[in-house]
Amino acid sequence: MTRNQLDTDLIIAGGGLAGATLALALARVVPELRVTVVESVPLAPDALPDEYQPSYDARSTALAWGSRLILEELGLWQAVSEHATPIQHIHVSDRGHFGATRLHAQDHGQQALGYVVDNRWMGLCLMRALLDTRVQWQAPAQVTGMVPTEEGVRVDIRKGGEPLTLTGQCLVVADGGRSGLREKLGFQARTEEYGQNALIANVSTAESHRYVAYERFTDTGPMALLPHGSPREPGNQSALVWTLSDTALHDILSLSDEQKCRKLQERFGSRLGRFTRIGDCYHYPLKLTTVNEPVRPGVALVGNAAHALHPVAGQGFNLALRGLMTLVEQMRRGVDRGVSIGDLSVLGEYQRLHRKDWQQTVQFSDSLIRLFGQPLAPVALARDAGLIGLDVLPGAKRWFARKAMGTGGRKPVLSITGKAREARSE
Question: FAD-binding domain: which residues (predicted)?
């Protein structure tokens, strides 16, 4: 069977942020590839709203400055930026201790250290951009299995209760770590439970956030407050990530909104004045999940299917985005060499290049949790000294800023802008 006899070239399981971004990047950089996305949520292009009305309870994602640069390369940032709240300052502190460090975008010659964007808005921007590409969709549908073939893979799909089969060169699993497809395909995930939960909600405060993101470590776990709302003027709304034990989570959820605000005030303090409102609360258990060998001939795991991090450093989607660009780069190189994009020489190089980034990011996030989770006095003093050192030592502060901004990792060799320009001119 030749390439032209295959149903498609690449099948992406999952059309969420990771899967849709990968599809768009391939359409920009490797436009000759036929891409099919299999998504469980039904899609109706004519249902995309002409105008976006932000919701108070919208879930959001923290985008590092490095992720903005990637979205610019893909021609997506201009649209996304319409509802992207900048993070111009970061304040890190340890509750009950004197140590603290501060980062300021202007000190690094940038407009912002990062941005907070509603997931739904980013998804709408991706869908609008994808409507102008040749990417095909199977939705609502889901991948139920895969069999390697001499030409690549045969992927089993269930759509509307009916079985369907697609043949292609490669399958990319981008449906997160909870669907079960990863395990069904035989990948072994290593999971470490933190014994904590993340409570996610939007909150309002008496004082403006002034585009400051707060990372507050407490004796019961870290909490983050990220500026949220209008990108044009600093407001009073922030996105909350609150780490809680099972018992504490149960107790918080049983409270009224007014009582939740009081409890939050006790843990966070008064840097933003009084907490005046808390929106719908969502929660999920925290765990560190990694797959040591996320590729094999004809199949690759990306995003949360390959690695899921503690949200303390806000690096999950940013790490995934860098990995997606590395995969796109290697697929571009494979096509240029006349090699199947599912060949292990292509996918193995993607794994090799991305591995160092995810190992360093996992270590950075995990070490923060373990370091600030130690109640011993000598450890607390060392933490305070470390935070002060980050605040006053230029070299240490630059290193920390690069981590926060997502600019300290490997830079792709491939010029995505050049390829995107070629693709748009065809």
Answer: 7-329
